[in-house]
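S1.2 Input.
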Amino acid sequence: MGGKESEKLHFGLSGLSCSSCAANVEKALADKEGVIDVSVNFATEKGFIYFNNTKISVKEITGIIEGLGYDVKYEDADEKLQKVVLNVSGMTCTACSNRLEKTLSKEEGIISANVNFPAEKLTVKYNPNHIKLQKIKDKSSELGFELSLEEDRQEEETDEEEVKVLKAKQKMALSAIISGTVMAIMMVHMFVIPIPGYLLITAALAFPNIFWLGFHVHKGSYNALKNKSPNMDVLVSLGSVPPYIIGLSGLFIADIQTFIEMATTIMTFHLIGKYLEIRAKGRASQAIKKLIQMGAKTARVIKDGREVEVPTKELQVGDIMVIRPGEKIPTDGVVVEGSSLVDESMATGESIPVKREIDDGVIGATINKQGTMKVRVSKVGNETFLSQVIKMVEECQGSKVPIQEFADKITGYFVPVIIGLTVLVFVSFNLFPEFHMSIINWGAQFLPWVNPDLSPLALAFITSTAVLVISCPCALGLGTPTALMVGSGMGAEKGILIRNGEAVQTFKDIKVIAFDKTGTITKGKPEITDLLPMEGVDKNDLLYVAATIENASEHPLAHAIVESAKANNVDLGKVNEFNAIVGKGVVGYVDGEKVLVGNRKLMKENDVNFSKQQDKLVQLENEAKTAMMVAKENTLMGIVAVADPIKEDSAQAIAEIERMGIRTAMITGDNNRTANAIGKKVGISSVISEVLPDGKVNEVKRLQEKYNIVAMVGDGINDAPALKQSNVGIAIGTGTDIAIEAADVTLVKGELSGIISAINLSTATFRKIKENYFWAWFYNAIAIPVAMLGLLHPMIGAAAMSISSLNVVYNSLRLKKVNVDPSYVK
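S1.3 Output.
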């Protein structure tokens, strides 16, 4: 999948009316040779596709989707697609613009080409891997049109979601006015005074409601039937158009029952439901909007010795930004001058500002609260922390939970089955009228909308229509996506980034959580605690030798020794022939003399006598300190003890995890005594010590063999193989130090309390998913049989269908009220 011939494209879809539409797109693409993986999310109206571009092209993918009747819009998230606006000269009429559009649209690599004839502009989106801009110009030139690049300009941003909600609201309001008028006229006609030309008046009023405001429904229905993949649009079309046509035929045939009022009301209820659903889905997806809005629009940078304000998108790595108090930090960077308190709550959920000084990293979109700082840009565009967070939240919202697979399969057959049941009911009413009339007469005793005075044929038609419009595949399709949208958004606000829906489902079944020690349970910043020279050895000499050789090492413990030397003004010497021996220590030559710094194994191998120091070594290790012996020319100089302070909340978090019924383990390279001392301090169930870096994967495998479902918590970089081996990999760190790509779950805030919050959030999210599926199935299981018996009027059915979808969406929104914090911080 990682070869040059494989691509991943993200896209947005418009025209989806229910989850079966999304399933149809998935199936149509998945069946094509060259498609590796495809996923379409009905709730977000987005999807992605992995494909082999030597076997299927972007043009073919576009054709398949558009052939199903949906509009596709490719996103630029992967930076594979480019969009450019060009000036066009040589056009004389719209025929010219149409010819240019059609010709370019057929070219391999061009996703879309749109020509605005009055403005003489061409907007083209293309894949530069398949076609170059010059070829587009050459092709246009062959047609007699010259293209030139338009100067870059600031375009007015439009919130597509707000436009969509506004349009749906306008349609709903107009439809409600029309149907309300029709119903008012009906009441006057039936109970006050007969209205001449009543049928013609109602038909004229209902026509724009059903065929104009509902045009998108019928268009979607046509495309679905053309592609043999019926969806909810088909149900609504069949529930509104036939009743209208039959009612209209009353103008020509006497004694025909009019169903026009029913038809127009069904469409109105559908449009009301769609408006409320779009609005609710917008609320569910607010997290990404908030994240996008967090970014600063402009930045103040130093150019030619003076401050210049530029758009954030024009920033480049290496630029020096000036950030004053109260301003947002435009993008990720490193402080090069000044210091300040920075509000990083948007990234970590921590409300207390953090001090940032020279050489400290800062995160874009966080707020400078105090002093003026100069920051060197380190990341821009899609590489920034905020962009990675947005990407991860979108991936989670676009992913699927394993439990969803069954629902998707059912949804694919749902509409055809409903149409079959509708036909069955209609036929049954006419074959067994006595049986159905007995049920109708019984229901009429307590249901005012059941009318036994109608003919069996009219009742058959009304009942069949009720079955069509009350059935709701949407509720099934919205169950998982809306819960994931809300849950992932809540997580992002608290610094918990969940990569996919599978992690949400797996979290609830975790039996063991294995922790790396350094940087996870501990702070990851070791400090020298003890400096114990042998008799006749000066402390500074011991520190000089140890720090000089460790200065060549990249180990965190080495850094602590070097920092201590600097703090005590000990100048470092030169080291030669340095060699780091995994699991033992380091060897090298300092000022021409052989120096060893390490553990017992290293000393024994080099015949260094440390027998008199055994008790002291054991004492230090029992205090959770790492004791390193320093020897020069095979003679012991002394002991340097280093400890990595335990995080403040580690013990409380591990205790709560144990109370939740989840066992804890710690995997570390430390010796047995040191590891057990730390394990005892924080309350770890199982301590696995003296594990070499490449042995962590095997330890995770052993835990899986014993406990089945295992989560691994590490820093996301050094522990990547172990994180991937585990059932749920959890990367923990702070700010820009986190490798977000390394795990299923990323905890931005470097505290273990985030694990508890992540477990609580995942459990609550999965509970909502199950609740949503229950209500969706319960609704259909009750409503469809009742409708088949003739006990539900189609108008009530249309309203009930909308309510069932809304119930699922609003149930997901209730997730926002759940408190997922650990008990000790509540």
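S1.4 Remarks. The chain has a mean pLDDT of 82.
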